[in-house]
Specification:
34% of the residues lie in helices and 26% in strands. With 208 residues, it is an alpha/beta fold. The structure holds 5-O-phosphono-beta-D-ribofuranosylamine.
Length: 208
C-alpha cells in the first residue's frame, strides 16, 4: 500500500518537487497527501497546487522559528485529518517540539544539507566551505527532540572543489538531496527501516 506523505515547507520547495515527481511517476511507493507551510508566500505551495495536491498555509502564530502552542495543535490536527503515515520536513524553517514529534514518533523525517553530525543549524554549506572540508553532502534523518540529531537514514557525499562558492556547493548537494529524500521515503513506505538504539538498519541492505 502506498504511503500517504505530508510535506512541510517554508520556501522554494525543490525537495518537495522531487518527491512529487517521483511519486507521480511511481518511482517511489508514496503519495503526497498534503503540503503545509508556515509561509503564505512559499513557492512550494504553488508547486503543490500545480500538481493537484492540497496545500495549506497554517499560521505559525509566533515570530520565533519554532512550532508551538495553538499553531502546533493546528498542524497536528490537519496532519491527522489527512491521515498521513509520514511527515517530511523539507526546508521547513521551524524547530518542531516534543508534542508533534511524539504524535509522529519515527514517522517524521528531515533533510539537512550537510553530512551530519557535522554542521548543524543554518548556512551549513558556508560552514563546510569555511571549515575547509574536502567532502560535504546531505543527510536524511528521523526527527527527534535533538535538532538535526535524530537517527540517520541515508546520506550522500559530494566533493568540495577549491573554486567552490556557497552557491556551487549548495547546488551540488541539492542534486543529491533530490535523490536521497525520495529514496528514504520509499524505504519507509516499504517498511524497510528498523531503528535500534540510535541506528537505522535498512532491511535487505548490509551496506557492502
Ligand atoms: C534544502 O537544502 C534542505 O536540505 C534544507 O533547506 C533547503 C530547502 O530547499 N533543509 P527546498 O525548499 O527543498 O528547495
Amino acid at each position: 500500500m502506498s504511503c500517504r506523505v505530508a510535506v512541510l515547507v517554508s520556501g522554494r520547495g525543490s525537495n518537495l518537487q522531487s518527491i512529487i515527481d517521483k511519486s507521480k511517476s511511481r518511482e517511489i511507493d508514496a503519495e503526497v497527501a498534503v503540503v503545509l507551510s508556515d509561509n503564505k508566500e512559499a513557492f512550494a505551495l504553488a508547486r503543490a497546487r500545480k500538481a493537484g495536491i492540497e496545500a495549506h498555509y497554517i499560521d505559525p502564530e509566533v515570530t520565533k522559528p519554532v512550532l508551538i502552542g495553538n499553531a502546533e495543535d493546528n498542524y497536528i490536527n490537519t496532519l491527522k485529518e489527512y491521515k498521513v503515515d509520514l511527515v517530511c520536513l523539507a526546508g521547513f524553517m521551524r524547530i518542531v517540539k516534543e508534542k508533534i514529534i511524539a504524535e509522529f514518533k519515527w514517522k517524521m523525517m528531515n533533510i539537512h544539507p550537510s553530512l551530519l553530525p557535522s554542521f548543524k543549524g543554518l548556512h551549513v554549506q558556508k560552514k563546510a566551505l569555511d571549515y575547509g572540508v574536502r567532502f560535504a553532502g546531505a543527510t536524511v534523518h528521523f526527527v527527534t527532540g535533538d535538532v538535526d540529531g535524530g537517527p540517520i537514514i541515508l546520506q550522500a557525499v559530494v566533493p568540495v572543489y577549491q573554486d567552490d562558492t556557497e552557491e556551487s556547493l549548495s547546488s551540488r548537494i541539492l542534486k543529491e538531496e533530490h535523490r536521497i529524500y525520495p529514496e528514504a521515503i520509499d524505504l519507509f513506505s516499504k517498511n524497510k527501516l528498523k531503528i535500534k538504539d540510535n541506528r537505522v538498519f535498512i532491511e535487505g541492505d548490509d551496506g557492502k
